[in-house]
Amino acid sequence: MDSEFAQNVNAYGAMAAVVVTYHPDAIVLENLCGLFSQTRHLIVVDNGSSVAELAPFRLAAQSQGFELIENGENLGIAAALNLGIQRARRLDAEWVLLFDQDSRITDGFVNTMMRFFASNPWGERLAIANPRYVDLRFGTPLPQHREVHGVLESATTSGSLSPMRVFDEAGGFAEELFIDGVDYEYSLRLRAKGYVIATCAEATLLHSPGDPTSHDFLRLKPFQASNYAPIRRYYQERNKIWICKRYGRHFPSFFLNQFTISMKDLVKIFLVEKNSWRKCRYFMRGIADGLCGHMGRLDESSARPPA
C-alpha cells in the first residue's frame, strides 16, 4: 500500500476501488496491481470471461488479497458496477473509485483525488470527481466532457471518485442500459438532484480510448473515426434516446450536443469505417428500440435490424 495513503487512510475513511473486467489480458493484471497499492480494498467484478482468462486473476486474488467476483456471464457494465459498490458498502467503505480494466493509475492518484474532495468549493454537493485523462498509447491528453460554469456536464466512469453516501441517496447505475450511456444517465440523475461533477486537474489517469483512426477524406478537415462495433452503435443510440426521454427537459443543451455527435458519427461510418451498412442498421435499430422502450441486453441471435 502506498505509504502516503496508509498515513491518511484514517482521515479519509475506508476506500474501495471497483474494477470491471471482460476478457482481460496480462496488462490488465498489471493495472490492478498498481491500483491495489493505493487503496485499502480492491474489488474486481468479471463479466463472463473464460476459465483460461480468469486463471491468473484467481491466483493473484489469493496471493495479493483482492476480491474477485465472477459473474459467469456478461451482465453489463451497470450491473457489474452495482455488484462492486454493494460489496464495498458491506466492507464499510466510505469512498468508491470506479475503473475500467484498461485504465492505469499514476503515482499519488488516490491521495490527489482525495485532497481535491477535501478542499473543493462545492462542499457536499460534489458527487463525482474525474481526473485528467491521458492516452495510454501516445501520452497525449484526451478530450474531457464539456464544462458549464466550471463544472462537468457528465462524468467518465473510469477513474471517478465518489463518497458512498452519494450512492446511498441516488441509488445505483441503471442496469436496463446494459452498456453505453451508463455514465451519462447517472451524471444527469445526480445533477437533477443538485449535485456537482468536477475535474481534479492535478490527478492523471492513463486511459485507452478504444481504436480510433485519423482520416483526411477528400481533403476535408482531418477527423477521427471511433470504429465501434455494430452492437456498440446499437446501445449508444438506443440509450441516448432512453436517457433523453427522462432528462431532456432538464438538460436540452446536453442532448443537442449528443445528437449532433450521433449525426456526425453516422456520416463518418459511411465515409471511412468498415462494415458500414451493418453498423448503420444497428444504429437505426437502436433509435427505434429507444423510442419504443425496448431495453436490456439485445439478443443478437434474434435481432433483425431494419433494412
Give an account of the 3D structure.
With 307 residues, the protein is of the alpha/beta class. It has helices at residues 3-12, 26-36, 51-64, 77-90, 109-119, 164-170, 182-192, 230-247, 252-272, 276-292, and strands at 15-21, 41-46, 67-70, 95-100, 104-105, 126-135, 147-148, 151-152, 160-163, 196-207, 213-215, 223-225. Strands 3-2-1-4-9 form a five-stranded mixed β-sheet, sandwiched between helices. Strands 5-10-6 form a three-stranded mixed β-sheet. Strand 11 and strand 12 (223-225) form a beta hairpin. Helix 8 (230-247) packs antiparallel against helix 9 and helix 9 (252-272) runs antiparallel to helix 10. The termini are far apart. The mean pLDDT is 90.
Question: What tags apply to this protein structure?
Answer:
single chain, 307 residues, alpha/beta, five-stranded mixed sheet, globular
Helix content, binned percent:
40-55%
What ranges have pLDDT less than 50 throughout 5 or more consecutive residues?
A: none
Provide the structure class.
Answer: alpha/beta
Overall, the morphology is globular
Order of H and E elements? HEHEHEHEEHEEEEHHEEEHHH
Overall mean pLDDT score?
90
How far do the termini sit from each other? Answer: 55 Å
| Arrangement of strands in the largest sheet | 3-2-1-4-9
Strand content: 15-25%
Radius of gyration: 19 Å
Largest sheet: 5 strands, mixed
Number of E-state strands:
12
Count every helix, treating DSSP H or I runs of 4 or more residues as helices. 10
